[in-house]
Amino acid sequence: MLQAQDPRSPLPKSCPTLRASGVPRADGVTGTGVAVPGGRRCPHPGRALRSLSHSCTMAIGEELRSGRFWRGVLAELAATLIFVGVVLGASAAPGPLAPALAGGLAAGGLACSLGGPQANPALTLALLCARKLSALRGATGVLAQCAGATLASAAARAALQDDSGLVTRVSAVGTAGTALAWETFATFQLALAAFATAEHAAPQAGLALGSAVAAGALAAGPFSGGSMNPARSLGPAIVTGVWDDHWVYWLGPVLGAVLAGLSYEFILAPGASREKLGACLACRDVALVETPSLSPSSVAHGPPAPPTEQREQRTP
Question: Per DSSP, what are the bridge partners of residue 162?
Answer without folding.
Answer: none
